[in-house]
Amino acid sequence: MWKWEAEGNAKAVIVIVHGAMEHHGRYGWLIEMFRLAGFHVVMGDLPGQGMTTRADRGHIDSFSEYTIEIKDWIQAAYQFDLPIFLLGHSMGGLASIRLLQQEKLKIAGLILSSPCLGLVKYPSRMMSLISLLLNKVAPRVRVNSGLTVDVATRNAEVREIDSNDTLYITKVSIRWYRELVVATKNAFEDIAKTQDLPLLLMQGGGDLVVDKKMVKTWFNMVPLSEKRYKEWPEFYHEIFNEPDREEVFEYTKDFINSQLKAIGYIV
């Protein structure tokens, strides 16, 4: 886990949760933008990803490993004694949802970026059946994730960096995949348990990874007092890495500032 302090007086703390295959190092631009805008940032690498391991990259035994880790980051953010906003991207968004369906935490708002609530492409029925068997007898067997830098973002600069990133995961374990499927299902089944927080959900209109129809369905179903949906037309999966990402950041910042004003903080 790492902490980056704001430039000048801080208004709030942003806890960022990255997605599958990636790590905190891919969020340098976003972290710096938040810092310059007056926010502390707390972030780490999720279990099985980034700098957390070498032997078990792309593997978890249980999806709860993610929620436990995120809760630790939030608890670390409490030390600043400022409002906290949880920002989860893709699988990190799904993990954030699952955490807030299992616990009630002291945070001021939830921001979801293309949350993994369904995939555009699933394995064939035969492969799915095989994965169920392997999950019992050989859960650590790894398979190609099928994700490439080209489907994540249209940003050529980011694509170039990713193609040379040794921490970027290309294979995941059978257990990881089965845990993802179950977590996605549970996010819908436990939707009534979701902590009532102000929500900003942003989705790429041209997402080739996450099924935006399932994302919109979940958004329409979740029983929150205040929620806002924003779809960015033609944007790929990683909206904070797209060529026009400054627009996404400004929209996110406006949401955070409006929530801070609503709870009496001067921004």
From TrEMBL:
Keyword set includes Flavoprotein: no
GO MF entries: hydrolase activity
Ribonucleoprotein in keyword set: no
UniProt domain Serine aminopeptidase S33: residue ranges: 9-244
Alphabetically ordered keywords of this record: Hydrolase
Protein known as: Alpha/beta hydrolase
Organism: Niallia alba
Lineage: Bacteria, Bacillati, Bacillota, Bacilli, Bacillales
